[in-house]
Amino acid sequence: MKRNLGLLAALIVLLGITYFTQERRGILKEQEKDNYSKILDTSKYGDLVEIQTPFGHIKKFNDGFINFTDGHRANQKVVNEFLTRLSHIRSKKFLKDISKEKMKEFFPEDHMKMTFTFENEVLEYQLGAKLNFSQDFYVAMRTKSSGLVVAIANDKMPFEGVVSKENEHRSDHKYNRVKALFNLAPNFFLDLSIFEEEELERSIVFSNLANESFAIDFKAQTTNPPPEHPIIVSKAKMSHLRERLLSLRAFNYLSNVDDTTNFSRKVGTIKTSEGLYTIYERYKGDQSYYIFNPKNNIYYQFKAGEQKLLLFNIQNVWDLRVVEELGSKIKITFDNNETLELEVHKIGEEASKLFKILLSPAQYVEKVKDFSKYKNWKLKLIINSRELEVLFTESEMLVLDRKQKLTYHYTRFSKEPISVDPDKYRVK
Fold it and tell me: Exposed (0-12), middle (13-18) or buried (19+): which is 127, by Cβ within 10 Å?
């Protein structure tokens, strides 16, 4: 809370002092005694207890903030970042004796307001129009005790992207960026994260309609069931999944769901130390996915496609490469029984294409129960003493390891199979 007060105080002070002169060697004594800085000094207002934007409204609760309407927890980091962002808006010139007509001209959109409520004061902050001849724009600040202050202001944050020097002085890029702060979504301040870091320190059980239940232990870097030898768990994929789960954010939520039959169906569950999360498809005919959070009994709504992070196969965290490295020599037998022994640094174009696939992850692997359907091999390989066969179906390229009873499946995005012509494997 003290940090919030400090950030907001910085915002108001920055708006109340002419900062261009501060970039010089010193500040004149007259400016240090500037009346505006005294009028807008928030230290006398007490604690910040409420923030209201055009579409969002949060209030103080204990050491943080909650949603004004339903008490949903706000994300303290987001609140702090928001106040810090506003602090980069700084006054250049203060205006006096402004007529009602000019106020309407300077502030054509009445809803572009934010209200900061303190224990002893209410501060209203309004964004006005952009000036035609520069990047500057109008701002207004109003308090019950001190009345209205109007200023020409500028955003001190640097440009993002490329802006031509010719039009930079009057670009609306910065103004539109500031304006976006007044159009933040209703749930912008809220903590819509699903998982907490402590939950992911223990084993988690995933279950969904497409796959059997499986467990992942991020700390031990293991899965249950474990992968078949020689497949191993991918530490990189495990770390990536963990970070994705921690950063997962819903965009909306349902807090009063009395009848779960309004969901189309249950498609999965995730069991952690905090309880059982349940994943649902479509609510009252919409096209969204939802997850029930046992920590607060809320149903969180996801954007289309994000449910894939929760509904996946255990093989998504395995290293599904056929081989990690090729070694120095590879022996290839073709379906015409011709055999070549190739040095890895001296191979033809078609061999390079094949080996590139073998060094990349397969889409999935399967345990072989019936070898009878794997008779029509096109290539036989010996890589690092490991014997492999390459076969083709209409939609896939398969790599068969008879000894380990495994098949690696690669999707054929091109209908043209990899050539089995020995001449194309030789170096020319």
Answer: buried
